[in-house]
Amino acid sequence: MNRSPxxxxxxxxxxxxxxxxxxxxxxxxxxxxxxxxxxxxxxxWHIREAAIYSLEKGRTGYTSNLGLPKLRTAIxxxxxxxxxxxxxxxxxxxxxxxxxxxxxxxxxxxxDPGDEVLYHEPCYVSYSPSIALAHGVPVPVPTxxxxxxALRAEALAARITPRSKVLMLxxxxxxxxxxxxxxxxxxxxxxxxxHDLIVLTDEIYSELIYDGTPHHSxxxxxxxxxxxxxxxxxxxxxxxxxxxxxxxxxxxxxxxxMMKIHQYGxxxxxxxxxxxxxxxxxxxxPGIEPMRRDYExxxxxxxxxxxxxxxxxxxxxxxxxxxxxxxxxxxxxxxFALGLLKEKKVAVVPGPAFGACGEGFxxxxxxxxxxxxxxxxxxxxxxxxxxxxxx
Length: 391
Ligand code: PLP
Known about the structure:
This protein is of the alpha/beta class and 391 residues long. The chain has helices spanning 8-11, 17-26, 45-56, 69-83, 89-92, 98-110, 127-133, 153-157, 182-194, 252-265, 271-283, 288-308, 333-344, 370-386, and strands at 32-33, 93-96, 116-121, 137-142, 164-169, 198-202, 228-233, 246-249, 321-322, 346-347, 349-350, 362-365. Residues 37, 98-100, 124, 170, 174, 202, 204, 233, 235, 241, 246 line the site of pyridoxal-5'-phosphate (PLP).
């Protein structure tokens, strides 16, 4: 073959830094992983049972492209209560294969080639590649530890151009756990209205918020519902990563456009998973709070442990990640993470996997049991001592 069989825009996309790192982890034994962002809880039994029951009843076919009507009704009810925004279940809710598919559909439905998409960095690894795959131009806006990794309206304004079309938000944020104070969210909403930006708000961690902090979705602010695609799912709050169920809520015109792509590419999400997700919303929401409380206790432990080791670590208000500053070790993020893995068998993710401004930091996921976390922190302590941090 004289030319590459792979399209240029796909060739240009780097492999995920997380995957590369975890290929090394997989060749090793007895690693304590603070790496993958996945709840350590198993999906609550009544949700699994609902899926088993639906299989027993022989419900094994396709569903409507948009998703089971009873699930869409449950989603509209939940979103109205949790985010204080109403959507019409028949036309404004689309069930997807995880938030991952919803992000891809929304970007493909919204972007013409060359449209610019703004997003805050460090951020979830899929944002920049998903924008590029939809022929958009990724425009990262760096956030800083000094601001609690919140997006500053001023920093956003400086990067808006006549080609800006979409803003992607994810608060609480993967990988920093940062949240967005209401005042800043209002200032960002005002910029979106002024510059006619459409917002994709990824709310996947919106149930996992600590210290009694209130959560506001940008979709609930005045004049924002009509220009926002709200993305949410079941992976984190209900410990349902493997079921692959998410959803998008937006004005009917946008849902219709996303549905066209979804119906040809995916057809529908798995009926068994949709049955489980319905059970999660109808009877499962009280199950979220005990898991949230557990994460909060682990966060308290991990934040103190990193700070005690001389690695400055903000106290994130959400999600299940901490993003400690490893610069006192004199190592780069990659050197620190690889050294820790090889010498102490503890896996954390180098900060630059989430964008260039993550250099000097690592991400540690605390969705693992407290005894495991304690052992991991003991080993990180040994590693830092050997690097002579804090002496
Ligand atoms: N969005 C963010 C910010 C995430 O952290 C993740 C997974 O880690 C996803 C989306 C993917 O979610 P899902 O499992 O619903 O596809």
